[in-house]
Amino acid sequence: MSRFHCDMNKMAPDLGRPVVSACDPTSAAALECIHLGIDFGGLSAVEDFTLSVGATRITGLIGPNGAGKTTVFNLLTGVYQPTRGTILLNGADTRGRSVAQINRMGIARTFQNIRLFDTMSVEENVMVGLHNEQRYGAVSGVLRLPSFWMRERAAAARARELLSIFDMETLAGRTAGSLPYGFQRRLEIVRAIATGPSLLLLDEPAAGMNPSETTELMESIAKIRDAFGIAIMLIEHDMNLVMNICEVICVLNFGRIIATGTPEQIQSNDEVIEAYLGGCGKESAQPC
Predict the structure, then answer these.
(1) Is there a smaller number of Cβ atoms within 10 Å at the N or the C end of the chain?
(2) Residues ≥6 apart with Cβ < 8 Å to 211
(3) Which residue range is the domain that position 175 belongs to?
């Protein structure tokens, strides 16, 4: 039975998430996926994926293991090239672009497995993200000319500024690998933000977190959206987090979207309940 089984019946009260329509006309699209699909060895992993992610909106992508969620993220970031369909980021077609090019276009991502530079300091990890925007000349970089050090000082100052937003400035000098798990997760998100994205993709950000850390994560995600005015799309199995922080939720089943809507709409959707919650719908005799 799915790990989602009946969790929707146990949702915590709303934590301040604004109630919006899944088709809110006031929110311009940061990302548009149009009939997106990809095949592996003749098998369709994602099929007819069509979704609009509003700028400044928090969108959840849910479904059981193997539903195609991470494959969608890999398509959005250029790890995979789509077999068919279109991806538009702020109106620009991303097809044929490399991972680095798409990152510079405005998509940043975190991963289910933390990928920090463990032996580097917290500040240096954030500066790696900031270097995405730096344009050093070969001579300046190799010879360490004054212009190089000026940019490095500016990057360090910006890194500390970003860390302070997430109450991590006192940890700037510590090595990333020495941080508690929850802070490592937070650092990975800060580093992604440092690249200056218009769309932030979070792949299971609450994985391995205890309830207290998850609550802090929810607050951080809301803070990111409000402070930076960016769109956020997340994959997550913690339904309490999804229902309380996401304004729009997209549900995948075997690589296809079966429902898109607000948390309230998703919780009452019989097809979602049948497909992901082990048959707890109103027509099911299975106890919840």
Answers:
(1) N
(2) none
(3) 119-194
Per-residue pLDDT, 125: 92
Q: What is the pLDDT of residues 23-45, one digit of tens each?
A: 343 457 899 999 999 999 989 99
Q: Residue 185 domain-assigned?
A: yes
Q: In CATH, what number is assigned to the domain containing residue 45?
A: 3.40.50.300
SS3 of the chain: the string is CCCCCCHHHHCCCCCCCCCCCCCCCCCCEEEEEEEEEEEECCEEEEEEEEEEEECCCEEEEECCCCCCHHHHHHHHHCCCCCCEEEEEECCEECCCCCHHHHHHHCEEEECCCCCCCCCCEHHHHHHHHHCCCCCCCHHHHHHCCHHHHHHHHHHHHHHHHHHHHCCCHHHCCCEHHHCCHHHHHHHHHHHHHHCCCCEEEEECCCCCCCHHHHHHHHHHHHHHHHHHCCEEEEECCCHHHHHHHCCEEEEEECCEEEEEECHHHHHCCHHHHHHHCCCCCCCCCCCC
Task: Enter the pTM of the model.
Answer: 0.81
Q: Is the pLDDT of residue 6 over 90?
A: no
User: What's the length of the chain?
Assistant: 288
Q: Report the domain count for the chain.
A: 2
In a shared domain, residues 258 and 148: no
For 75, the token pair is 């398509």
Do 22 and 143 belong to one domain? Answer: no
